[in-house]
């Protein structure tokens, strides 16, 4: 390995790391846009179910 080879390798590594980070952010953003709203709704429904808010008796229906 010559000195010229060792100078270029950190630049290639840095470019690869930068490209990987950019691709990760882009893919993560697309997945969040795609699944974000559905995931938030699912979590909200699960929290409502666990807290018992959906299990209340509808007394208006019982008065009929």
Report on this model:
The chain has 64 residues and is mostly helical. Helix content is 83%, strand content 0%. It is rod-shaped, with a radius of gyration of 26 Å. It starts with a helix and ends with a helix.
Total count of strands? 0
Shape: rod-shaped
The structural class is mainly alpha
Major sheet characteristics: none
Would you identify the regions where 5 or more consecutive residues have pLDDT less than 50? none
Overall radius of gyration? 26 Å
Strand content: under 5%
Gap between N and C termini: 89 Å
* Total of helices: 2
Mean pLDDT: 81
The portion of residues assigned to helices is: over 70%
Order of helices and strands: HH
Question: What's the short story on this structure?
Answer:
The chain has 64 residues and is mainly α.
Task: Give a quick set of tags describing it.
about 60 residues; mainly alpha; 2 helices; rod-shaped
Layout of secondary structure:
Elements: H1 3-51, H2 59-62
């Amino acid at each position: 390995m010559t000195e010229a080879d060792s100078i270029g390798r950190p630049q290639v590594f840095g470019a690869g790391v930068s490209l990987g980070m950019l691709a990760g952010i882009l893919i993560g953003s697309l997945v969040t846009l795609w699944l974000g709203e559905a995931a938030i709704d699912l979590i909200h429904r699960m929290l409502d179910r666990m807290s018992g808010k959906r299990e209340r008796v509808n007394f208006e229906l019982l008065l009929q």
